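Sanity check

After download, print the first record. It should look like this:
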Amino acid sequence: MNQDANALPKAVILVSGGLDSATVLAMAHAQGFECYTLSFDYGQRHRAELIAAERISAGYPDVTHKVVTLNLDSIGGSALTDTAIAVPESPTEGIPITYVPARNTIFLSIALGWAEVLGALDIFIGVNAVDYSGYPDCRPEFISAYESLANVATKAGVEGNHLRIQAPLSNLSKAEIIQQGSQLGVDYSATVSCYQADNQGRACGLCDSCRLRKEGFESAGVADPTRYKLA
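Expected structure tokens:
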């Protein structure tokens, strides 16, 4: 995996359209990476996030954006992919029904393949293990294990090009994420975090993702630009 010594290092950035991934893109861009953003049309009910992901990526004229279609709704098992399962509007015990089985494992696998094609050694993902919904594939041990896998499962890794899975938000609170993103100029009004946003991207204000987002802005002392359906 040879790169021009004068070229910017390339990175694939997983961009969902939400607050966290928008911040991660801003971080990677500020670090001088040539950024390639990757989103997934995976059968999610909150499809407004795809429009947001494209909008966020388009805010950087030098960023290339790609959308890959996956039909995770065909296996179901999550309130985010099965409209017959209601999105919880109050906190629940254990891993919530909004967990999409193996989602980040699948997303990172596609990102890893694209990274090899591009000659990129870095993949950025906006997982967080402080203010989050309790998904198992958002924990630091998952990221560490996946990086180990990436380096034994790829041509790049076998040839000695160490691949890095970067999760810079892992140990930050939602307020700290918002503060750092604000310093980098992230336009959070362009992001969609709600699990059941309408077609205009307006948030329900009730689901777990909305609650974490709202509390984050309040704790950060930053005005919440979210558009709510109930407002």
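If your output differs, re-run the checksum step. Summary of this record's structure: Strands lie at 10-14, 34-41, 64-69, 122-124, 164-166.
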